[in-house]
Amino acid sequence: MDVYMPNQENEENNEQNEQKPQNPPPQAEIMPPPKPNPRGVIQFLTIIGQIEGHVLLPPTNKATKYEHVIPQLVTCAESTEVDGLLVLLNTMGGDVEAGLALAELIAHLGKPSVSLVLGGGHSIGVPLAVSAQFSFIAPSATMTIHPVRMNGTLVGAPQTYEYFNKTQERVQDFITEHSRISHDRLNGLMMDTQTMAQDVGTILIGEEAVREGIIDATGGLHDAMEKLYELIGKDPA
After folding, report:
1. Whole-angstrom Cα distance, residue 28 to residue 18?
2. 146 flagged as catalytic
3. By percentage, how much of the chain surpasses pLDDT 70?
4. Catalytic-role residue among 113, 115, 123, 131
5. Run of H or E including 172
6. What is the pLDDT of residues 199-212, one digit of tens each?
7. DSSP per residue over 65-96, as a string?
8. How many domains does the chain have?
């Protein structure tokens, strides 16, 4: 007659388990940190769609919110790990004050900066494009130069005209200060009535923007990055 002894059975199972070879637990593979680019670390900033100002745009609009971009620019200027800024633009324009605020931050970033207009850099996108130390435009990209506009209720008084005029001068002064175009030529492009069918202004395509002195050169992403590495000036060796 067999007698069941649970303690003896447990001891036998423990002995068998001890005799089995124990496989070491799998070790998590630790990836080495990425090596920094010896030519410099670049931060990318994209300005796309419509530049949103103090008034919210409808949710169906593709927009760049200036309150999101300003902290990115401040972080870029403060970071010791970032060597340069590359601004990629495909914008229809938008709020004048918001656009000028971003342009002023880029212009006084304190680090090398390059801009590249892809698709379009219209309206207030022009000051943003010229705010970098060197600017590129894709051969197929366009830029619309036109006077400052405003929608909503307007007061038909001389003060309204003066406000428009001063705002227009702010935009023109910034563009001429950061590009090679003269104030008179820029004003002529903005007020041209022959180029656009139902509007006042001028549309410039690729090389035309370079010939007018607004943009420095035509090129693409590789050209813009190579120029930024050149401005950073690090020895890759």
Report:
1. 26
2. yes
3. 84
4. 123
5. helix 158-177
6. 899 999 999 999 99
7. EHHHHHHHHHHHHH-SS--EEEEEEEEEEE-H
8. 1
Residue 120 is assigned to a structural domain of this protein: yes
Side-chain-facing half-sphere of 174: CA atoms under 13 Å:
26
Active-site residue, selected from the candidate residues 113, 131, 135, 146: 146
Exposed, middle or buried, 124 (CB in 10 Å: 0-12/13-18/19+)?
Answer: buried
Beta-bridge partner residues of 91: 49, 121
Is residue 226 one of the residues assigned to a domain? Answer: yes
To the nearest 10 degrees (0 to 180), the angle between helices 183-190 and 158-177 is 120
Quick check: is 7 in a domain?
no
Residue 178 known to be catalytic = no
**Domain membership flag for residue 21:** no
> Which residues constitute the domain of residue 222?
42-52+59-232
Question: β-strands 113-121, 134-137: how paired?
Answer: parallel
Q: Write the CATH number for 96.
A: 3.90.226.10
